Amino acid sequence: MRESVQAEVMMSFLVSEELSFRIPVELRYESRDPYAVRLTFHLPGDAPVTWAFGRELLIDGVGRPCGEGDVRIAPADSEVLGEVLIRLQVGAEKALFRSSAPPLVAFLDRTDKLVPLGQEGALADFDADLDEALDRILAEEQSAG
């Protein structure tokens, strides 16, 4: 069984109203983390930066404004499904990207074929993930102290 879906799309990195440039962005979805999508931004001169957030947020954001806090996604034009704006924020630092909607929709369609929306819980093993995270935290505390 295929366990991941990947795609690469070109997005515009909107630096200001006057300045933007196109960058490749890798989209990735893995069945072992069925609730999340990962976007890796390949900015010129910098190491790639990966953001993970809810797949459902991306699905909803293609059609209507959504998200709070660090990740907000919305159609660029509420009247036409053509482009999507993705705003990422860490503290006072913000980055705004614009993507064509069809490649995002095609990627999301492929994720739905791998793990249908609403079926994520059948794959997620929260107890094992929690145990693994707690073990890692305890090991880090013991090695630091």
Descriptive notes:
- By secondary structure, this protein is α+β, with helices and mostly antiparallel strands.
- The protein is built from 3 helices and 7 strands.
- Strand 6 (80-90) and strand 7 (93-100) form a beta hairpin.
- The longest helix is centred in the C-terminal third of the chain and has 19 residues, at 126-144.
- The radius of gyration is 17 Å and the shape is globular.
- The model has no long low-confidence stretch (mean pLDDT 88).
Helix and strand topology:
Blueprint: E1 4-14, E2 20-30, E3 36-41, E4 49-54, H1 55-63, E5 71-77, E6 80-90, E7 93-100, H2 101-114, H3 126-144
Antiparallel strand pairs: 1-2, 1-7, 2-3, 3-4, 5-6, 6-7
Categorize the overall geometry: globular
Strand order of the largest sheet: 4-3-2-1-7-6-5
Q: Give the count of helical stretches.
A: 3
Structural class: alpha+beta
Strand tally: 7
Weakly predicted, low-confidence segments? none
N- to C-terminal distance: 43 Å
Salient structural properties:
7-stranded antiparallel β-sheet, 145 residues, alpha+beta, 7 strands
Structure summary:
The protein is 29% helix and 41% strand.
